[in-house]
Specification:
With about 80 residues, this protein is of the alpha+beta class. It is built from 2 helices and 4 strands, in the order E-H-E-H-E-E. Strands 1-2-4-3 form a 4-stranded mixed sheet, with helices on one face.
């Protein structure tokens, strides 16, 4: 598991695509440039789409780790403001 310090934490395991990306983007937008968001998300579409979409927005993906329970932890650094 990636040991990364983070500034904010978000659990979107109760959301379905495309709300997973929307919730992650809104939360990331509230952070300052350089801050890190830790996101807990489900396997499948969220695991595939959220990291890709955030990277397409220009943010830096620091890690995507399985939690062993069907969920993943994604670390994203905000780039730009």
């Amino acid at each position: 598991m990636t040991d990364i310090s983070f500034d904010e934490e978000l659990d979107i395991t109760d959301k379905q695509c495309p709300l997973t990306f929307v919730k992650a983007k809104v939360t990331l937008d509230e952070l300052d440039e350089g801050e890190v968001l830790k996101i807990r998300l489900n396997d499948g579409e969220p695991r595939e789409n959220v990291p890709r979409s955030l990277a397409d927005e220009g943010h830096e993906i620091l890690g995507l780790d399985p939690n062993g329970d069907g969920t993943y932890t994604l670390f994203v650094r905000k780039v730009g403001d």
